[in-house]
Structure formats: C-alpha cells, structure tokens
Amino acid sequence: MKFIAVVDYGMGNLRSVVKALEHVAPADTRVRLVEGADDILEADRVVFPGQGAARDCMAALRDRKLIPVLTEAATTRPFLGICMGLQVLMDRSDENGGTDCLGLIAGGVRRFEDHQVDAQGQRLKIPHMGWNQVHQTRAHPLWEGIDQDSRFYFVHSYHVVPASYQVVAGTTQYGLPFASAVAQDHIFAIQCHPEKSAAPGLTLLKNFMHWTGGV
Amino acid sequence: MLAKRIIPCLDVDSGRVVKGVNFVDIRDAGDPVEVARRYDAEGADEITFLDITASSDERETIVHVVEQVAEEVFIPLTVGGGIRKVDDIRRLLNAGADKVSINTAAVFNPDFVREAADKVGSQCIVVAIDAKQVSAPGEPLRWEIFTHGGRKPTGLDAIEWAQRMVANGAGEILLTSMDRDGTRQGFDLPLTRAISDAVSVPVIASGGVGELQHLVDGVTEGHADAVLAASIFHFAEHTVEEAKQFMRAQGVEVRL
C-alpha cells in the first residue's frame, strides 16, 4: 500500500485536496490528512497545501515543529506544493511586512502591483481570481497529458519570484507574466488549485501519483 | 489571460433546486447534485448555491448537498444564504465549499465580515450586495442596499458599502440588482460598472439575465469579472458552453 500525506497544519480547508487526490489515486494508494512529523516522513509522497497569510502559515509550521520535517520530505520524496504551499517554499515573502519562509527554493514572494489594467483597459483585480492559462516553460512529468496553456483556477494576491529561471516550470500572465509553477528535484509546486481546476487539475494530481521525483 | 467566469446559480430549498422569479413565483428544477454535475460537464467556471431554506430544521440539508457535490465536481463551489456565524462558514467549508457568500448578516453586523475574513481568509469570503436604484429619473444615479429580498431599504449607499466591505476583508463582491432580478432584461449595467470600478476585488454581476448578449454586456459594459445566471441555464434554454462560445465570438476571454 502506497501512502500520500496531505499536510494539515491548520491553514485552511483541505477536504477538497483530499477528495481530488482520492478521485485519481490508484487502487494501491491511500490518501491521508496528517498533522504529525512521523506521519509525514512515513509517506511515499507529500502534498503541501496552504491558504491564508505567509506569517500565519510559517507560525503554524513552527508551532507544530514541522519545518525540519518538511525540509527532509521535500528533498527525499515527491513533494507537491499548492498555493501557499508554493509561496512558503521560497526564502522570504513580502507579505505581512516581510516574512522569512522555508528557503527550499531561492527567491522571494511579491504582491501583484495595484492598478494594472488589461488589454481592454479594464482594472486587474486583486486577488487574481479565476481561470488563467499556465504556459509550460519546460517539460516535466507532471505536465504529461496537459495541453500547453491549459486553464487552472487561481486565487492569490502574492506570487513567487524565483531567483533562477531554471526552476520555473510554468508561467501565467496577469498584467505581467509571473512564475505559476516551479520544479526543483523532488519538488513541484504550483500557485493555482489543481483540486479545483477540473480535468487539467485532476490530470496533474494523477501525474503526481506516478512521479518518482526529478525532471 | 484571465478568463471572465460564468457562474450558474442554483437556488436550493430544503435540498432541492428552485428558481425564484422576482422572489415570488418559484419553480422546481431538480436535484442539486445532478444539476451541478451537468453544469460542470458544460464547462461552468464555478457553481453557486443559494440556500433559501426557511425552516431551521432543514438548515443542515445544504451542508449535505455541498458534501455530495464536492465528491465529484472539482471546480469552485460557493454557498450563500442564512450565513450568520463563523461556525456556519466553517461547516460549509469543511463540507467542501470554497467560498461562502454573506448578505444580510453583513448589513446587520458589518464586523462579521471582518471576523469571518480573519478566521478563514478573505479568499473564502464573498459579500453579496442587493442594490436598488433610489435616484429619481434625471437625478445622478444612486443605488442603496436593500434587504429582505429587496423589500427593506437600509439607507446605505451601494458604492460606499461595497468599498467598506472590501476594507473589512471581502475577497469578492456578488452584486445583484433588485430592480433587474427575475426580469430577464439584463444586468443593471451602470450599477455594475460603478461598483466594479470602485473596488479592487472581483465583482460578480447578477440579476436580470434573459439572453446571452446580457452576459457579454455585463463584462464589456458593466466591467464585471464574472457573470452569474440561473434561469437561462436551468431550463436548458442555453448551455454554459453555448454561452461561452457566444461570449468568445464577441471577443470576451472565456475558458472553453
């Protein structure tokens, strides 16, 4: 029996993530919400979701003593970050007046610029909410079977700015292009919500079930 | 580019889908799980459930509806109606809803929006605004917030109210014109545009859709980020996919 851990650190509702993973999990794979360090390290694969503010996420991880565990999990087995689970992988976020994050991927997190406009001159709202295209900037096992520029569901006001373009796996245009997916060794992390992104999202989660890490 | 969203809305009473025409004449249009599945298959960008259950004994039914839908429909789900406490919100989010829409409770207790956004995050909080034009013909346009299905004025200016709700943590505004709701004459475009241009968060236009052109107008003239409609989809007059093809043909960015 394979075991996929969805890390529950009190930041938001994870039912949708679990339901979507269960929907695509092979028969020999179990999906479990886990809170403890031991459970995370027992898993074959780890899903790291997250909602809310960077400072609250980091505080929750510290309180639960999960920081070393996540670092270990992210470097030793397939690891999928979703939404805030992408942002807190970076060195530091501008949110909450500056928040130190996990530092697993070099780079920062910035807020979208206010008062950007689209091609029609209409104001671009913050949060960036809705279905936007993810442009795959390189091949990756998690993109398998997903059309180039497929739409995924996003809800966020901050976006990651990786230090190296090498780790960018996908970009999305919202005013300016931003990195919407990053990949580095065992880590794949994405800003949108695959669990709420209909067929392309489910395909990505299914690909994660079979991914052994690496590009 | 970000797509404009099309959101079918299901009015749910004691677990069954109904659609009120001007909130008086109500018709039954089926099982919520079936309808949600169909909308998902047609390409709906989100689904909104408006719980209009009056009896407190049956208030739990909406939670079960959301649970069942969330088992098989993997797009965002919003639930509105009767939400008064953070506990109500948590129950719905735990059942599989992604957002909740707060209406009357925000009017009677504006701090509730702040409290809710603090507890569950702004991204989960939609504030529903029911507005009605109060300016006389010839006067500069002005709209006020109404409660109780559009019967009770509150004296609150709709634009100021929307801005205040955003300041309190609303992540999105669901704007319904009570003058247009159920009339099938199209959105109140000046209202929609005034609110959408006045706030930083996305605005969903609602109330009055009778034909596909109205959806286009809501986006192009009303500056809405999303459009919500019920009856044109419920009775299979148009599928969501037809609506999107129509919008795309007129230059609106949609997910197809």
UniProtKB/TrEMBL annotation, chain A:
List, alphabetically, the SUPFAM superfamilies matched. Answer: Class I glutamine amidotransferase-like (SSF52317)
Q: Does the keyword Amino-acid biosynthesis apply?
A: yes
Q: Could you tell me the EC number(s) of this protein?
A: 4.3.2.10, 3.5.1.2
Specify whether Transferase is a keyword of the entry: yes
State the InterPro entries in the record. Answer: Class_I_gatase-like, GATASE, Imidazole-glycPsynth_HisH
Q: Which GO terms describe its cellular component?
A: cytoplasm
Q: Which NCBIfam families match?
A: IMP_synth_hisH
Q: How does it assemble?
A: Heterodimer of HisH and HisF.
Q: What role does this protein play?
A: IGPS catalyzes the conversion of PRFAR and glutamine to IGP, AICAR and glutamate. The HisH subunit catalyzes the hydrolysis of glutamine to glutamate and ammonia as part of the synthesis of IGP and AICAR. The resulting ammonia molecule is channeled to the active site of HisF.
Name of the protein in its database record: Imidazole glycerol phosphate synthase subunit HisH
Organism listed in the record = Ectothiorhodospira haloalkaliphila
From TrEMBL, chain B:
- Enzyme nomenclature, EC number: 4.3.2.10
Where located?
Cytoplasm
Chief localisation class: cytoplasm
- Biological processes annotated in GO: L-histidine biosynthetic process
User: Which top EC class is named for this enzyme in its record?
Assistant: lyase
Pathway per the UniProt entry = Amino-acid biosynthesis; L-histidine biosynthesis; L-histidine from 5-phospho-alpha-D-ribose 1-diphosphate: step 5/9
Coiled-coil spans in chain: none
Recorded GO terms, molecular function? imidazoleglycerol-phosphate synthase activity; lyase activity
Q: Which reaction does it catalyse?
A: 5-[(5-phospho-1-deoxy-D-ribulos-1-ylimino)methylamino]-1-(5-phospho-beta-D-ribosyl)imidazole-4-carboxamide + L-glutamine = D-erythro-1-(imidazol-4-yl)glycerol 3-phosphate + 5-amino-1-(5-phospho-beta-D-ribosyl)imidazole-4-carboxamide + L-glutamate + H(+)
UniProt keyword list: Amino-acid biosynthesis, Cytoplasm, Histidine biosynthesis, Lyase
Kindly identify the residues recorded as the active site.
11, 130
UniProt-listed Pfam families: His_biosynth (PF00977)
Which InterPro entries does this chain map to? Aldolase_TIM, His_biosynth, HisF, IGPS_HisA/HisF, RibuloseP-bd_barrel
Instruction: Provide GO CC annotations from the record.
Output: cytoplasm
- Top-rank taxon of the source lineage equals Bacteria
Q: Which family does it belong to?
A: Belongs to the HisA/HisF family.
Subunit info here reads:
Heterodimer of HisH and HisF.
Q: What does this protein do?
A: IGPS catalyzes the conversion of PRFAR and glutamine to IGP, AICAR and glutamate. The HisF subunit catalyzes the cyclization activity that produces IGP and AICAR from PRFAR using the ammonia provided by the HisH subunit.
Its recorded name reads Imidazole glycerol phosphate synthase subunit HisF
Q: Which organism is it from?
A: Ectothiorhodospira haloalkaliphila
Gene this chain is encoded by: hisF
